[in-house]
Amino acid sequence: MKRLFSRLMMLGGIALAALSTPAQAGTPVRVGYIPVLGSSALFVVDGEGWAKDAGLDLQLVRFTSGPQAIQALVSGRIDAYVAGVLPLLQARAHGSDVKVVTAASVEELEVVARGALANQLPKDQEGGFSPEVVKNSFAAFTKEKGHLPRIAAQPMGSVPDSLLRFWLQKQVGLSSLPTTVSIVGVDIDAAQQAFLANAVDAAVLREPALTVVRSRLPDVRTLATGHDLLPDQPGSVLAIVKPDAVDRQVWAKQLASLFIRATTLLSSHPDDAAPFVTKALGGGILNEDVMKKALERSAARFISDPTRIIEGVRQLQDFEVEQGLLRKAQQVDDLFDLDLWRQLKQ
């Protein structure tokens, strides 16, 4: 009954307004995505059959990192993008016409530690450590083990890599990363596997990987929460390629509306989304109970309002320019289609 009630409630408001003029039946939309919990709204839209009912034929294209998805976007192989927002700045810097229409989540990423590095942290606290505590933990680990702490992230230019470096340099205050930590850039799945195999001492992870490693490794500690890394840390977004093109306008508003509808479901009734997210991310390995825990822990972080992440995007872009990852700063406001967002909120 609870599930039925939630479905009935979802039929009203912003979603119904945008669906009043459906696209032609079977309009193909190629959506590139990263297989993380922040992409869950896409899995709900597809799994619930909402897109099909609206006359959209979603063709999901899986990538393992933001830079991979951006390559496909720039070459015209995808029409929409569901992944981290920062790589989109690089796409726009290379002349791609792409805009964010809704956010999907915030504060997805955390830094977790295990083994000797975890043992250096105060026992009565999870995350929220002062810069001095973090610095002292790194130094004590290096002295004990004879090598720098190894932290797994994703390839340079990805959101996890940039955010980790931002936190270490701007929040913790490390002036020289190469003499303090060793950052290992690998794909999403490899980061979790390396952490579980004790091949690294810490990792930048997000759900459901966080739930998995905490269930398997009793000594896992949270070195930095998503809020520690950056308040309202920009996470996954829905972006449309060439949003002003006539063929895109046929479906862009519909897809954005369905995405918001799914995000509302994820934040208010995460258990209802678990079957679809498990099918998309479980790979036959993760069961639905694990996914439910991951979704419940993340429920408050599923948000649609893109204005919440603009300042964080600006800060991280400035950092990437400073690091030489971007040649020059882009107009951050131009990355967001706030007019469409306002229409959907009416």
UniProtKB/TrEMBL annotation:
SUPFAM superfamilies given in the database record = Periplasmic binding protein-like II
Entry keywords, A to Z: Signal
**Signal sequence region:** 1-25
Q: Name one Pfam family in it.
A: NMT1_2
Q: What is this protein called?
A: ABC-type nitrate/sulfonate/bicarbonate transport system, periplasmic component
Which species does the entry assign this protein to? Answer: Acetobacter tropicalis
Lineage per the UniProt record: Bacteria, Pseudomonadati, Pseudomonadota, Alphaproteobacteria, Acetobacterales
